[in-house]
Amino acid sequence: MKTLIASALITTMLSPAFAQEAGQVPPPQSPSDVPMPVAGAPISAEYAAAIGRMAYIWGWPLVNMHNRQTLFATAPHPGLLGGVLPVAPLNQIGMLSDYVRPEQRFIAAPNQDVVYGAGFMALDEDAVVVQVPDFGDRFWVYQVVDQRSDSFAEMGIQYDTAPGHYLLVGPDWNGETPDGIKAVVRSQTNLAAVFPRIFMDDTDEDRKAIQPLIDQVMVYPLSKYTGEMQTMDWSEAPEIPNPNAGGDGETRWVVPEEFFKVLPEVLAETPPLPGEEGLYAMIGQVLDAAADNPELMEALTKAAVETEASVIDYMFEFRNNGVDAGNGWRTQKNSARFGYDIFQRTATAKGNMFSNVPEETMYFGADFDSAGDRLNGAKAYTLTFPAGQLPPVDGFWSLTLYNEQHFFYPNELNRFSLGTKNKSLVTNEDGSLTIYVQNENPGGEKEANWLPAPAENFSLYIRAYWPQNAIVSGDWPLPTIEPVK
């Protein structure tokens, strides 16, 4: 806990706004005027370890993104990695044709409300064209993030985004925009990623209706642009062997023992935000010294391993991220818009990376019931939404259950969430809706509202896509998680 408090304090103190308000430094200077560490200064193993701990917390999400891009770069063509994960070579995209399958381990805390896509970009190689089909009134959003996992594009139904072609470019791109391109979207970093989410009802009819639309969800290099909508039958996406298959938790995207070997490359490919120049120089000084000094590299590696165990692992639980939202739930206020908030950015990358910005999606996680006890399948629980108090959204909502690793719990109904997509939910006589969260099937009409739970610890997660102001402002009361006595 002390380490977390210290890291949060460091995060705040690194903010130029904090320093100016405190009267400690003059207004920001240009990077060339900022005093930097003196070359040749002696660096002890203890100092290297101290800087290493801070650098590990700060750089964890950036290295995470770098390593995911590295995996996608090995894809020979668009397809399904291990038969479950949509992948594609860099500057392209892969798409599912149905809900994400329970066995995928690419991303923790997924949902089964949308058809997902995923693609990583190397924008220093080429600008890319992003296709948007005519989705009509179906909910959809494309999340476009930079290396810091900040969203920087507004593409979705809530933005009235028109169908057509959009150009995604890197920070240094100065090419000509071809005819037919509706808008140019610029990333702050050359590493970027695109994650389409297209809502689908849990019915055979909607699974059929959505296929022609998702077949037009394409991303490809500008050099391949023709002005016409290109298509691919994603239901026929070929399987690609997964070299990282296995394990109960998310793929280990950040390996502490390798972190400081990768970080120099990540620093080089991620320009500092205004005010971060000194931080980059301080970390770079230690990395340069450690490159030729095994003792310093050993100190950095040890710091990474210890910080992973004492800080990063702690961030995984929903209770250790975000802010109190009432009735035992936690939520994020700056998801995908982190800025200088190192703590939230890293905690989100650990527990639920690629969350949308709050105006697109609000997320609420819970690990405990109304009595303050850890959610566990040895008990049964109910969540009741009073009449007229379902999550107020213009998109959709869902309640998802995750096991301790933030993945789906295999069960007899193959059911992992309930919400807008479900057309057979049964309301009570007074118009309220009760969800039954328990290990055993409650039977009868209650089965339609049953969210199967494992026998061990689990967590609950509410998603509100395109939330109305009552959710964003915190005025909507979240349901209590009541243990059944």
Automatic annotation (TrEMBL):
Keywords from UniProt, A to Z, are: Signal
Q: Where is the DUF1254 domain?
A: 91-221
Give start and end of each DUF1214 domain: 360-468
InterPro entries noted in UniProt: DUF1214 (IPR010621), DUF1214_C_sf (IPR037049), DUF1254 (IPR010679), DUF1254_sf (IPR037050)
Mention any Pfam family matching this sequence.
DUF1254
Give start-end of the signal peptide. 1-19
Q: Which PANTHER family match?
A: BLL3101 PROTEIN (PTHR36509)
The name on file for this protein is DUF1254 domain-containing protein
Species of origin reads Paracoccus aurantius
